[in-house]
Amino acid sequence: MVTKEQVYEALKDVIDFELGLDIVSLGLVYDVQVDQEGNVSITMTMTSPACPLAGMILEQAEDRVRQIEGVKDVKINLTFDPPWTPDRMSEELRKRFDL
């Protein structure tokens, strides 16, 4: 059975190339749900609604999660509510950037 932890680990391979950091550490992934059949639903955002790389990031996230054994389907819900702020970054990144 696919777990949330597996999905989060896979999403750490997806890099926001403008910032050079993974989308999980940036706090762009708001929620992950996995049902009993292996269907994965991800709610995430971008650092800005005008992110020029949004399409590429979403495609890479979906592709990476589909590589997990047992995943049947992947749905990514893009939201800007609540909007992303640097407070959503991992503690490690906040320290690194002195936030």
TrEMBL record:
It holds the Pfam family FeS_assembly_P. InterPro entries: Fe-S_Maturation_MIP18 (IPR052339), FSCA_dom_sf (IPR034904), HMA_dom (IPR006121), MIP18-like (IPR002744). It comes from the Bacteria. One of its GO terms (molecular function) is metal ion binding. Transmembrane segments: none annotated. Residues 4-77 form the MIP18 family-like domain. CDD domains: HMA. This is MIP18 family-like domain-containing protein. It comes from Pseudothermotoga thermarum DSM 5069.
